[in-house]
Amino acid sequence: MITLLIPLIIFGSLSIVLTQSYLKDNINKNNITLLKQTKENVELVLNELDQLSLFFDVNSKLSVSMDSILDNTVFTYESNIISSIINSFLSADQNARPYIHSIYIYYDSFGDNFYSSGNGKTSLKEYYDSSWYKSYQNQDPKKMVWTEEREFKEYNFEQKPTKIITIYHRMLTRKGVIVLNIFPQYINNILKSNVPFPDQNLFIINEANQIFFSNTDNNYLTDAAFDKISKSNSDFFTIKEANSNYIVSQLQSQRYGWKFISITSQQSLYKFPADLMKLMLLLLFAAFIIGLGLTYYVANRNYSRISSIINIIDSAESGKPLPPLPERIKDEYSYIINNILKTFIEQSYLKVTLSEKKYRMQVMELIALQSQINHHFLFNTMKTIYWKSFALTDGPNVVCEMIENLSDILSYSLESITQTVTLESELKSTKSYIDIQTVRYKDKFDLIWEYDKNVLACNVIKLLLQPLIENSIYHGINEKPGKGGIKIKIQLTNAHIIIAVIDNGVGLNSNSLLELRKRLNTDEDYSHHVGLVNINKRLKLTYGNEYGIKIRSKPNLGTVVYINIPTDIN
């Protein structure tokens, strides 16, 4: 038993080291994931600026209409109607999104006049909030987006000013700015809802290291410590403050220049593992003592039995009288066999249980992968429907058709997703998607179908073609000047379906193609080409690791995506 102490000490030491290392990596990974999720949630709130930019900057017709509204010398019935529509649009955004305080639209060519979401056309001299104009005038003209914390009193009788976060978005096509004022409390609530630990603090700071948002009002770090954290370029590190260690993780937002910071007490994070480690050591010690006692008991019993056998043999050899046999003999072999059978049954049960869990995990991963919804596609489609409905005057024919196609796609996507579907159903849903994209990208691409009718009855996984075509449109045709083409070729060969999606878009260079192929062979998630990664995972889960996506691409020539899967005929 003394020799067992050495491996036991080595095992315990390695366990402590490996547990600490794993815990550190896991904390870092979880914090980065939390910060990425927080960053996505916050920037999703701020994406309202992109829509306002499309509406008031890129849209030339609306820009001209805004000129007539802001011009003091021109007032027509048409400008009054457009002003009402714009005011309704801004008010709808403000009412539908509780985090928006107000929206300002300002063009340099009209001096003091600007457009406010709550008051319509107004003047800097008359409006209660004009400090944003000084920030706009003093800002570097090359800087397109910046933020600042402001406060003002809307009414003279207010005792406390209203605190807001102002985001500026400089216009591209003409001189001017779009100003979005948001309530910081809304972002603070988002941070509070994302925190998994009670004493974990989340902060969002701007480029000047000023705290914009936080999930708590109690910052237990000094200004010097926080200044050191905000200026550090490390993603994960530990800082000591007031005899306590804090684990810090941070993530940079390139678009707004914000930094997302997570600060958690190390004692809080390591408390449970430390208690667990103490319990483990205590159990190991108890197990060692119990094992030592059992070993002594078994060794003493076996020694007694062997001594009895040797005594009987010695007595038989020397001719001495044999000792009396025990009245009852216990069969230890039956006990060993019983334990072997019991162990075998338990192992078989564990194998069945593990196989069932593995199958359930594959089904759950398949469901999670297949139930992903491309929010960008839905968002852009609804915007397209909105602008079409706004432009139509003779009847909503195109809008009705788009709504019908979108309803078909959603109905098809939300049906039972643990089963395969026929290729005919997949083609029908895909064509509905193409009809919607044809309206959005008018005269941008031509699409050619090439398949035999005998493949329509073949079973395939759901949502197989639509992400491939979406990838060709967004990453190939959309970035290409002029009109492009997409060809979908499907054929049945030796009980295998061969699908090829070909486009003559911008293509990929060798480095980008190699990087994309590496992404397809990893288990990590990526926001870029997420449709290809999704399909590749589902193909491997459904048909096996030998199946998946193959890609060929040449710059300025186009891209081909191949899929080869087994099939049967209904």
Specify the biggest β-sheet. 6 strands, antiparallel
CATH architectural category of the domain at 371-566: 2-Layer Sandwich
- What strand line-up does the widest sheet have? 3-2-1-6-5-4
Rg estimate, integer Å: 35 Å
Percentage of residues in DSSP E strands:
15-25%
Total strand segments: 18
Shape: flat
Low-confidence stretches are none
Structural class: alpha+beta
Compute the number of helices: 15
Average pLDDT confidence is 77
- What's the CATH H-level superfamily name of the domain at 371-566? Histidine kinase-like ATPase, C-terminal domain
- Into which percent range does the helicity of residues fall? 40-55%
- Separation of the first and last Cα atoms: 67 Å
Features:
Beta-Lactamase, 570 residues, Heat Shock Protein 90, five-stranded antiparallel β-sheet, flat, alpha+beta, 15 helices, six-stranded antiparallel β-sheet, 20% strand
